Target: Ribosome maturation factor RimM
Amino acid sequence: MAQRSSTELVRIGQVTAPHGVRGAVRVFPVTDFPERFTTLRRVLLDGPERPAGVRFRGFVKNLVILEIEGITDRNKAETLRGVNLLVPRAEAYPLPEGYYYDFDLIGLDVVDTRGTLLGRVVEVDHNSPVHDLYVVETAPGKRYMVPAVRQFVKEIDLEAGRLVIDPIPGLLED
Model:
């Protein structure tokens, strides 16, 4: 099985700036489910990780406004600029069948349909206008893009730690 880093914490947002003078902060959500902030009660603040109660205050454009326990003025809120908000992996929103979080895919062994190890997923690229791309490292410094489509990806098995592909000639070659 692949040596995967088990992600115990999931980043859901990052403090961008204070909001007002009473300690509220603006948070840029890095989740596909920004509505989660409306019911969020606790987070871990990174660097070093520490728990904090939170209270949702509203949305402003693409940002979330939160009050954070113990942060009572603008100066204290300023110290949180750039801090990530984390939740335990168990609190990640469940996805429909066949959908995966990037952090679940990164670290998977990539094998062909015969079981031959080809490399490891090191990144998921969402910048393609057509479909996502799995960035597969086959050797140090050697990376290839595998389209995240059924034609190539035959199976994703998180339990076994592998992604099975059926590569066409030249897909994983220079």
The chain has two domains: 9-91, 102-165. The helical segments are 74-78, 102-105. The chain has two helices and twelve strands. The longest strand covers residues 9-19.
